[in-house]
Design brief:
The chain is mainly β and about 240 residues long. About 10% of the residues lie in helices and about 60% in strands. The strands form two sheets. A twelve-stranded antiparallel β-barrel has the order 1-4-5-6-7-8-9-10-11-12-13-14. The radius of gyration is 18 Å and the shape is globular.
């Protein structure tokens, strides 16, 4: 575990140095900053409801080639601290003739917890690998696997399979997420499906090419015997 943490710390330093260097040499066409704001009727993450409230989700990111780094947050509109979260993330995507492979690391922390955000106990670090490939002109397959490597004694793992179909005006995605082994995080004692459902989404632009998006998701957690119907809307800048 110490080796993994040391490696992640090294990766973070390399990412920060690389970002600084890229900011110096990148041109406007090569580098890109993005911002977005999303409002969801609920914040449901991997089959669990955080905050029991509509949620505002801001995000900012910087991309350069296949490299991406950024921050994302969720704020429950009813002020519920269980729905308040800030994440930092970094990743790199390799495009190949067989599909796209992505490596990523995410630092989760909860600012309303009674623990200083400047201590290691406040942070939960997860690493992941994802793969996406086109099955046809309008259909794609996605696979991902993720594992918590810091501040989780169970080293909880989460895996997901998704199938996305582009329609004339909409896009529909079917997904099935599951865990392996016993974990406190996902409240399971064995192999369990915890995040199974479908999302119907649509993206369009208004005004001077301002991107907007809407989505509706039916999400079930078979392991916890729960079901959610979530509507979301987003705007990009």
């Amino acid at each position: 575990m110490k080796k993994i943490i040391t490696t992640l710390a090294g990766m973070a330093k390399v990412a920060l140095i690389s970002t600084a260097l890229l900011g110096v040499v990148a041109t406007e066409a090569e580098a890109q900053f993005d911002m977005s704001l999303e409002l969801n009727s609920r914040y449901v993450w991997r089959g669990a409801d955080f905050g029991s409230s509509p949620s505002l989700m801001p995000e900012v990111s910087f991309t350069y080639g296949g490299f991406e780094i950024g921050a994302w947050a969720a704020y429950a509109t009813n002020g519920n601290p269980d729905g308040t979260e800030i994440n930092f993330f970094a990743g790199y995507t390799f495009e190949t003739s067989a599909g796209d492979f992505s490596l990523h690391v995410t630092d989760y922390f909860f600012p309303d917890e009674p623990v200083s955000v400047f201590t290691g106990d406040a942070h939960f670090v997860e690493i992941g690998l994802s793969y996406e490939t086109a099955l046809s002109e309008n259909t794609s397959l996605g696979l991902s696997t993720n594992m918590f490597v810091y501040n989780d004694d169970d080293n909880a793992m989460y895996h997901e399979i998704s199938l996305t179909q582009a329609l004339e005006d909409f896009e529909i995605a079917l997904f099935s997420g599951f865990t392996t082994g016993a974990t406190e995080l996902y409240e399971n004692t064995q192999f369990s499906f915890i995040n199974v459902g479908a999302t119907l989404s649509r993206e369009f632009t208004v005004g001077a090419a301002t991107p907007l998006g809407v989505s509706a998701s039916l999400i079930t957690n078979p392991q916890a015997e729960r079901i959610f119907f979530v509507f979301g809307a987003s705007i990009g800048f």
